[in-house]
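Review this:
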Amino acid sequence: MMRQNNTILVVTVSFLLLLSTPALCIPRYGLTRVVVINDLGGGQELRLHCGSKDYDLGIRMLKPHQGFRWRFRPSFFGNTLFYCSVEWGAAAAGEVHWFDVYDQVRDEDRCTICRWLIKETGPCFSDEEGESGDSTCQSWNEIGR
């Protein structure tokens, strides 16, 4: 009886650990894709640095209208969050801004391809087809939020 209880405990703990590992999480809707595009204008390059609490996606220098994309499986627990910092001007050593590029609570039902256009005034979300009429712009996040 004791051995059976130990086996059940080990299987349960192993299953919970598997679910909590981001790369192995059971997806709710399969892969999600994020695309971030430099739409600053004026020929400015964009310095983009994206990541999550578990992954650093590295720093990218994006030329005008160039994009960076990645894909991932959202967490079974609904807590996936990716964020990006952006800067431009003076060889991309200007003022730093940041925003939540994917927040599972906000975006899970909104997009499977989450497309962002980076403008000086803030990031603009657009639908999967990139229709400009469906673009929603927001302000940059506050530091220390």
Residues 23-27 have pLDDT under 50 and may be disordered.
